[in-house]
Structure formats: structure tokens, C-alpha cells
Write the C-alpha cells for this entry.
Amino acid sequence: MASEIAVRAATITTWLEEIAISVEAERDHLTQLDAAIGDGDHGVNMSRGFEAVGKAVAGQGDSVPPGQLLILTGKTLVSTVGGASGPLWGTAFRRAGRTLGKEPEFDAAQLADALDAAVAGVQELGAAEPNDKTMVDALLPACAVYRDGLEAGDGIEKALEAAAEAAEEGALATVPLQARKGRASYLGERSIGHQDPGATSAALIIAALERAVQRAG
């Protein structure tokens, strides 16, 4: 069994910082993707949301449990991110936070449970299934690959590396799909040939988690 890493509040703060940086860097790209099949505001909305998260989390200190930081993140995203992304990501982070509870740290297996809870919340709210051309197409494979890695004896870092790759592959795999949920579904077959912006930002968020845990290790 690979050596274990206990994840604490500082790593969650780093994760949120990494998300803000990557979303801002890809803001225009996300907007271009959304302009093709949506409202064209996904990049701006996500960037604004995680900038607000950074301000909300700043000053909380490492004494705040990781789960509580995630709940705060979810509440902030609901109030600052427009469109469908705010409620969906808000639900995801709050579900993950509630799963982790008020413990000062968590391990790799608990992270798997938190990620599964996050995706379950997204699916419940958005009623999205695999191949519907949504963020679920990036998140579900990432969660499955992460848990598979742990069960194979990989440590959290290696398992997250594989999860990030799976999320990226999942986002790319949305290109040939026809959208069945959200604004993009109104386009019917015209949605085929475009990468889903929600799946793309989801992949960025999983990759940011991998980097944060790597830095902590």
C-alpha cells in the first residue's frame, strides 16, 4: 500500500486557489466553447464565482475544517455564478463538504466518498446521465478511476493523477455527442462537434485538486 497523505484545510484552500487560477487562465476558451452551444458566459461566470470563493475563504484560517470550507465554497458559488453552473457546482461542493463533516482532516478513501457525493448531487439536480454532454461526462469517469486506483493500492497522488486524465478525456469525448440537457440541448444535432464547456471546467477543477494534493505531499 502506498504511503497515505492526510488532507487538511490548507490543501483545500490551495485547491480553491488553483481552481481560480486555472479558470481565469481558461476564461476566454470556456467562453468560446459556451458561445457555440450555450449563452457564451460560462468562462466569465466561473471566473467570477471562484474569485468570490477566494475572498470568502480568505481569513478563515486553517482551524476551519476542510468540509466546512467546501460548504462555504458551495454557498458562495450559488450566490455568485450565473446560469446552471452556480447551483450545480454549489450542490457539488456542499455535498462533498457535508460528507467530510467537521473533522480536521480526511484520507484518500474519504475523498472518494466526498467526490462521489458531489457527483451524485450534480446528477440529482441536473438529471444528467453519462453521454448527455454535460459536466457529468468528465466527473463520473474521474471518480471511478480515482476509486479504482485506490482499490489497486495506489496512493492519493497517483490516483488523482489518473482521475485528472480521465476527466480531461471525458471532456474531450463530449465533442461527438449530441447535448441532451441544458441550453445546448435546444440545438439538437447542431450541438454535435463542440466540446462541452461544463465538462471542460470540471476537468480543470479535478486537475487543480491533483496539483493541490501534490503540493501538500
Observations:
- The chain has one domain: 7-216.
- The chain has a mean pLDDT of 91.
- The radius of gyration is 16 Å.
